[in-house]
Amino acid sequence: MSRRTMLFSGAAALVLLLAGLWWLSAPPGGSSIPAAQGAAGPESGVLAVDARRAAQMGIRLAPAGAAEEAPLATIPAMIQPPANARVAVAATFPGTVLRTLVVEGDSVRRGQPLAVIASRDVLTIGADLSRAHARSGVAQANAARLSQLSREGIIAGARADEANAIAAEARADVSEKSRILAMVNGHGGSGSYKLTAPIAGRITSAAIQAGNPVDGTTAPYVIDAADRYEVVGQLPERLIGQVRPGMSVRLLPDLTGRIVAVGSTIDPATRSASLKAEIPAGPGVVAGRATSIVIAGPAPAGAVSVPDAAITMIDGKSMIFVAERGGFAIRPVTSGGTSNGRTVLLSGVRPGEQIVVSGTSALKALATAQ
Questions:
Q1: Are residues 323 and 292 in the same domain?
Q2: Is 57 a domain residue?
Q3: Of 216, 249, 269, 334, most Cβ neighbours within 10 A?
Q4: Helices 120-151, 157-183: crossing angle, 10 deg rounding
């Protein structure tokens, strides 16, 4: 065999050997799948999803915000008006109800008429006022005449001074009776007066009907101030010392108030202490209604606040999807409490990281399929 033939045979054998090695190392199907089209293995903890596919899955991102407060506990409570925010409106003079102008549940402004009362006392004051006006007119005319005579030297000055004093007394009598009628919104001619609201608020009691008698010993109306309320609850023994005045409370869904007092004595029957917080008015805030409040304290360092929808359960554990280059990382998280549609996370996410807040179900299905 010639040297040329031997070289040609060796080259052919080398080509066949390389082709066999390539065939053995090639993946089934003849081509590899780009990482962006599939999912990384469980050992990587990252789902590889490109931007186009993320848009098809309805994925929406939002930054994880640093948490300032974390829920400590939810306790039952009772809504009530503050001690200085409930006013009983009593009848100033006894009489008979002619007409009621508001009913229980109505909102009223300060000075708004509530009812019209017919009263003999008001009629008497009106008559006294008319007589006082008449006496005052006569006294002033007499004082003016005697003062003129005194200046002309016809009478002694003492008589003019006495007449002026009587006229001043008559004017004071008119002023006093006028003030009384104005104070009760009375009308002396008709012998009636109006009960009016001393504060702005809501009528919480209206024990009054047209035709019924009223007197100063009962309060036909009770008004609660409409801009502020209190909630009173029982603080569990384990939280005594942790909860302090000034900390915030939340009345679901979205009313926020402040703790104003925490009791220092533990009730031996309930093993709890009293707690009082101020809350603003809002939908569903009615004195006497039972409710529950969420007590919030300072959040631990590094805690973040995320929407409840961002958290999903995988294999019985709380997980969250965090955006990373080329996909989404699956991270276990530790919850520090939930309130008002948001959850405080103590671990697993750093403030400012982009998390998935919509489309978590699609990512969960993709993760569990791997």
A1: no
A2: yes
A3: 249
A4: 160
205 within domain boundaries? no
Examine the domain organization and report whether 328 and 280 are in the same domain: no
238 and 291 share one domain: yes
Same domain, 318 and 265: no
Task: Supply the pLDDT for residue 99.
Answer: 92
- Residue 28 within a domain: no
CATH number of the domain at 347, please: 2.40.420.20
* Weakest mean pLDDT among 10-14, 288-292, 359-363: 10-14
Q: Are residues 310 and 334 in the same domain?
A: yes
Give the model's pLDDT for residue 69. 83
pLDDT of residue 12: 53
Q: Which residues span the domain enclosing 364?
A: 35-68+301-368
The mean pLDDT value for 4-8 works out to 49
Q: What is the pLDDT of residue 10?
A: 52
> Which amino acid would we find at residue 323?
A
- Answer whether residue 18 is part of any domain: no
| Per-residue model confidence as pLDDT tens digits over 247-276 | 989 887 678 889 999 988 898 988 999 999
Distances 72 to 9, 38, 66, 244 between C-alpha atoms, Å: 83, 42, 17, 12
Whether 239 contacts 295, CB under 8 Å: yes
pLDDT over threshold 90, residue 320: yes
- What is the count of structural domains for the chain? 3
**Max Cα separation, the chain?**
176
Cβ(253)–Cβ(119) under 8 Å? no
